[in-house]
Task: inverse folding
């Protein structure tokens, strides 16, 4: 599994209905994309307490070929054409779990990035993070969650989708889920991914 995300930060007075319309009319185009585990079409708004207006799609790829096909194909080119070329962050997958609300459509997602200190032993820190991820994924209201790592910057990333609009304190940055494309969700595995 590979996690991928790009953030498109928009002006404070940007009409976020444009993003909602974009997702409503184009979101379904990836509902059957080969190699895609899931894509959560995420957005956050200043009017809801976010520090920025932002469109920030989050992807879990079951296969790197799918990720490459998307990035070098017409799907990502549409983003480039409309917003410019964003920085695409990606992480190696560590764990994926379905939660107790797995049958529900996600309404909210959280993203939490945690740096791995220089003194931390990578194997021990990752093992602890995977255990914590298992506990967090079992919380009431969780649709699904993923844990990944960027070994270049030694950053752990926790991504969780929630059935409701409320999230626990400390869960991370909060986003609205406008649409979920999940053609290969079952292919993402379960639990630790090595």
Result:
């Amino acid at each position: 599994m590979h996690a991928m995300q790009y953030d498109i930060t928009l002006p404070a007075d940007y009409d976020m209905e444009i993003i909602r319309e974009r997702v409503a009319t184009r979101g379904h185009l990836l509902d059957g994309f080969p190699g895609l585990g899931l894509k959560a079409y995420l957005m956050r708004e200043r009017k809801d307490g976010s520090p920025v207006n932002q469109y920030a799609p989050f992807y879990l790829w079951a296969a790197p070929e799918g990720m490459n096909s998307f990035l070098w194909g017409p799907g990502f080119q549409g983003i480039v054409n409309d917003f410019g070329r964003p920085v695409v962050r990606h992480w190696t997958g560590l764990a994926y779990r379905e939660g107790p609300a797995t049958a529900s459509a996600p309404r909210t997602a959280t993203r939490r990035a945690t740096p791995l200190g220089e003194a931390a032993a990578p194997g021990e820190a990752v093992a602890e993070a995977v255990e914590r991820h298992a506990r967090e994924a079992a919380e009431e209201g969780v649709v699904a969650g993923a844990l990944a790592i960027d070994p270049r910057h030694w950053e752990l990333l926790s991504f969780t989708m929630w059935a409701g609009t409320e999230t626990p304190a400390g869960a991370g940055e909060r986003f609205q889920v406008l649409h979920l494309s999940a053609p290969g969700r079952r292919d993402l595995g379960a639990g630790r991914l090595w």
